């Protein structure tokens, strides 16, 4: 039996573990599922004869190295900043490594040594990053193989609530890490290119500059710009492309409502709110409003945010119970962003029967034989339940499939990498279709711009 060590048995690992266990007999695999919580590892392996759950503290160097040394290949489903020590151990014991996380500078620094040892350190092989890379490179490579020249690439992705579970005014629930949602867009202006011109959107304006997208059968969506759309320009071979934009998908109206929190300052994570532990939700709201001897918190909120009495923005605030004087924050030394996350989690947590949804949308503009053309590629994936969510499926399945391809010698290129080569994306995208992750490609009129107007 070949030993697959999976470190981290959290939400994203459920579909990954189920897939590998389903292949364990035919592929002669034995899974070692390691987590700080033995109970969680046991829950995910479900007494399967080809799986061993173990308790593992990754900060215990001796334990961690002993587990890695015994493995045929290592999968790290830990937070990104915890991968590096595992990667160094993999170098020492000459083990391949697979993660779903962005390639950090520290990870990239191991590239040369990984190549020397003929090791594959596959990263960014989840959803976003991951499926976005693979589905984009498939179409880009096909266009280039015909002699086409890329003019435009726009890519959007969002983790949302499925239509049958969409029952609040925000049309949104937390399907992944709430903190990432609260802090989205911070840390510098969003940067992208339109018709050869660099464009910048400061955080203060980010949620009022949105694009609209239509997905057949699911209606209209909006997208706000990611912080750095140009990160993969050279990686994708798009240095000469005229338009390059990456964005995050939400239902129409979300961004305008979210902008209220941005303008008030509630998404700030840089300072501590005094006596936050004893603060009510109403007091938290009032702390961002000017003093007035007679106006209520509600009136001050309407005035500062310019909310008319018939504006649905007001109903969205009321739905979150933000003006409740009896609900207590109960978070010591909390930042505004942490308090907002707590308040939103009260209202936006998935219910036991709720399902999540992933939406991905690519636009490819290109020139072929003197004619400008466009392909739109769309994917929608609905989760099964609270364990096997759409997010867990789209993050975990590509990780599992890449692991098996590496073990079987189908992926050969060594080094620290992301899944942009045909030997990686072609078999994984084909197999993902069997699990309902299907991209529908349509030929469209070219959605270009007039460069003279930009």
From TrEMBL:
<feature type="domain" description="Saccharopine dehydrogenase-like C-terminal">
    <location>
        <begin position="126"/>
        <end position="437"/>
    </location>
</feature>
<dbReference type="InterPro" id="IPR032095">
    <property type="entry name" value="Sacchrp_dh-like_C"/>
</dbReference>
<dbReference type="GO" id="GO:0005737">
    <property type="term" value="C:cytoplasm"/>
</dbReference>
<dbReference type="InterPro" id="IPR051168">
    <property type="entry name" value="AASS"/>
</dbReference>
<dbReference type="Pfam" id="PF16653">
    <property type="entry name" value="Sacchrp_dh_C"/>
</dbReference>
<feature type="domain" description="Saccharopine dehydrogenase NADP binding">
    <location>
        <begin position="4"/>
        <end position="120"/>
    </location>
</feature>
<dbReference type="InterPro" id="IPR005097">
    <property type="entry name" value="Sacchrp_dh_NADP-bd"/>
</dbReference>
<dbReference type="GO" id="GO:0004753">
    <property type="term" value="F:saccharopine dehydrogenase activity"/>
</dbReference>
<protein>
    <submittedName>
        <fullName>Saccharopine dehydrogenase-like NADP-dependent oxidoreductase</fullName>
    </submittedName>
</protein>
<dbReference type="Pfam" id="PF03435">
    <property type="entry name" value="Sacchrp_dh_NADP"/>
</dbReference>
<dbReference type="GO" id="GO:0019878">
    <property type="term" value="P:lysine biosynthetic process via aminoadipic acid"/>
</dbReference>
<dbReference type="InterPro" id="IPR036291">
    <property type="entry name" value="NAD(P)-bd_dom_sf"/>
</dbReference>
<keyword id="KW-0560">Oxidoreductase</keyword>
